[in-house]
């Protein structure tokens, strides 16, 4: 940039110019030795991460005052004044953000207008360049824009890895870099603040303009605006995006596990026939609705509120060609669902053929009758089994590969580390507690038993095992209470209190 000042009294005109050293040196009248010395000092200052400007001056002869509008005539024959070094330190959090990107499989490139040595020093300072660079990439890891622009698209594609740092960039250089990434099927996110960044912001998959110091042109070209101008915020956005993606997978997986388990249970149960040859449902319709709409829904919502997994930024980016239903998710839901459905079927069979009389009654899908006692007990057991399995599964799918007892070993360790992990998600925790609590009134209260077409099994088995309600005591047993409460059809004889017959 050149500025001309003219004294109004003496009419003396002076020109002052500043700019990059390599652009200013051809305009100086200094000898070649002096220019070589200037280059050496510029390289030394740039190697320290300074942005170096060369300042020059000249007095314009009176005869050239009429030629000031012609730039090529004014910008020549300058006398060297000095060098100015500017240091713009990167944010403290930038180094950690770049390291997070590397751990997450994200490559950070820096395209700048600075001197190549300044750009290299800054790249080392923020962690873009590491100490270990493969020898095959050493010649291309840092390039000047002039060298990069001379390469054809085929030459760029032949490079093993695109340059991490390109100095003295023009808008065209940045656009070519974005296009080279697209040819390698890479997802490109571009950040910038100047007018010269606008074309690249437009070509990138996601263009991010700086909100505080960004130009209006850059903001218009970008897809989003970063309000705090902090690169670390971009990394936090990546982490939040991964968290949301994971939670969507957890939400879907829990619901699908529940559905697969019920499908397997209901389909295989078609083989169980009653006296009329009709299939007997292992779960009543209202129980199925309750499991799907109440139990599973709140658990899935809780999984949707999960915090980021501790290793979320230690894994490579998700393949864009694969949606939410990854191979891992499909396998997990099938294995979990099949195992859960098989256990529920086993519980139904155990009650019918183990604790019961192996009789499936008559018309038990419509209403209660005396022949359906075993079926209704088996339904209560099956309902409790699938509910408890869904509650445990909700905690188990908090992480797709880690055990629930080793979910966050860097933060919690020891035999009781599971408790703070479960307490982190308060919504999910109380959803599980509520699910456990609701099972008991549904299974044990007579009113709920009548509504859900089920009969209690565990208390009756316990009573038979320990002889609770013997003939010498006046105890109203649960069977008698159910009969007196009207759970059995009219005409069923009501049993007297045990002990009354003996007294009479």
From TrEMBL:
One of its GO terms (cellular component) is membrane. It is a multi-pass membrane protein. The chain crosses the membrane at residues 251-272, 284-305, 335-355, 427-455. Keywords: ATP-binding, Membrane, Nucleotide-binding, Translocase, Transmembrane, Transmembrane helix. One of its GO terms (molecular function) is ATP binding. Its main location: membrane. Residues 281-447 form the Cation-transporting P-type ATPase C-terminal domain. GO terms for biological process: calcium ion transport. It is found in: Membrane. It holds the Pfam family Cation_ATPase_C. PANTHER family: CALCIUM-TRANSPORTING ATPASE. NCBIfam families: ATPase_P-type. Belongs to the cation transport ATPase (P-type) (TC 3.A.3) family. This is Potassium/sodium efflux P-type ATPase, fungal-type. It comes from Emergomyces africanus. The lineage of its organism: Eukaryota, Fungi, Dikarya, Ascomycota, Pezizomycotina.
């Amino acid at each position: 940039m050149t500025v001309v000042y003219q004294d109004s009294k003496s009419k003396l005109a002076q020109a002052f110019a500043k700019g990059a050293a390599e652009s200013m040196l051809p305009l100086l009248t200094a000898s070649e030795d002096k220019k070589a010395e200037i280059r050496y000092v510029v390289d030394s200052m740039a190697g320290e991460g300074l942005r170096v400007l060369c300042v020059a001056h000249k007095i314009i002869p009176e005869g050239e005052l009429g030629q000031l509008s012609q730039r090529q005539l004014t910008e020549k024959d300058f006398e060297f004044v000095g060098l100015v070094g500017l240091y713009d330190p990167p944010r403290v959090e930038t180094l950690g953000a770049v390291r997070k990107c590397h751990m997450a499989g994200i490559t950070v490139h820096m395209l700048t207008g600075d001197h190549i040595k300044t750009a290299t020093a800054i790249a080392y300072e923020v962690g873009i360049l590491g100490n270990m660079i493969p020898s095959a990439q050493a010649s291309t890891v840092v390039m000047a824009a002039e060298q990069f622009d001379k390469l054809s698209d085929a030459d760029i594609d032949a490079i093993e890895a695109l340059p991490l740092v390109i100095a003295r960039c023009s808008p065209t250089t940045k656009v070519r870099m974005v296009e080279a990434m697209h040819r390698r099927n890479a997802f490109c996110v571009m950040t910038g603040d100047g007018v010269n960044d606008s074309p690249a912001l437009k070509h990138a998959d996601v263009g991010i303009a700086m909100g505080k110091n960004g130009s209006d042109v850059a903001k218009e070209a970008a897809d989003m605006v970063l309000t705090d101008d902090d690169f670390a915020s971009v990394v936090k956005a990546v982490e939040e995006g991964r968290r949301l993606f994971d939670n969507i997978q957890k939400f879907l997986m829990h619901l699908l596990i529940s559905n697969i388990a019920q499908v397997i249970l209901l389909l295989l149960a078609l083989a169980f026939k009653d006296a009329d040859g009709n299939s007997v449902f292992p779960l009543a319709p209202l129980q199925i609705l309750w499991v799907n709409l109440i139990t599973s829904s709140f658990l899935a919502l809780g999984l949707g509120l999960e915090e980021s997994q501790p290793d979320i930024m230690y894994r490579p980016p998700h393949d864009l060609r694969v949606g939410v239903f990854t191979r891992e998710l499909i396998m997990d839901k099938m294995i979990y669902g099949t195992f859960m459905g098989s256990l529920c079927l086993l519980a139904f069979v155990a009650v019918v053929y183990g604790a019961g009389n192996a009789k499936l009654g008559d018309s038990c899908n419509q209403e209660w009758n005396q022949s359906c006692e075993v079926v209704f007990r088996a339904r209560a057991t099956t309902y409790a089994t699938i509910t408890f399995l869904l509650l445990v599964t909700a905690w188990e799918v908090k992480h797709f590969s880690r055990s629930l007892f080793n979910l966050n070993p860097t933060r919690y360790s020891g035999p009781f580390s599971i408790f703070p992990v479960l307490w982190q998600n308060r919504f999910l925790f109380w959803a599980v507690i509520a699910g456990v609590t609701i099972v008991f009134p549904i299974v044990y209260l007579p009113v709920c038993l009548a509504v859900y077409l089920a009969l209690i099994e565990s208390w009756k088995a316990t009573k038979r095992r320990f002889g609770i309600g013997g003939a010498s005591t006046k105890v109203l047993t649960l069977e008698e209470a159910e009969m007196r409460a009207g759970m059995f059809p009219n005409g069923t004889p009501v049993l007297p209190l045990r002990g009354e017959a003996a007294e009479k």
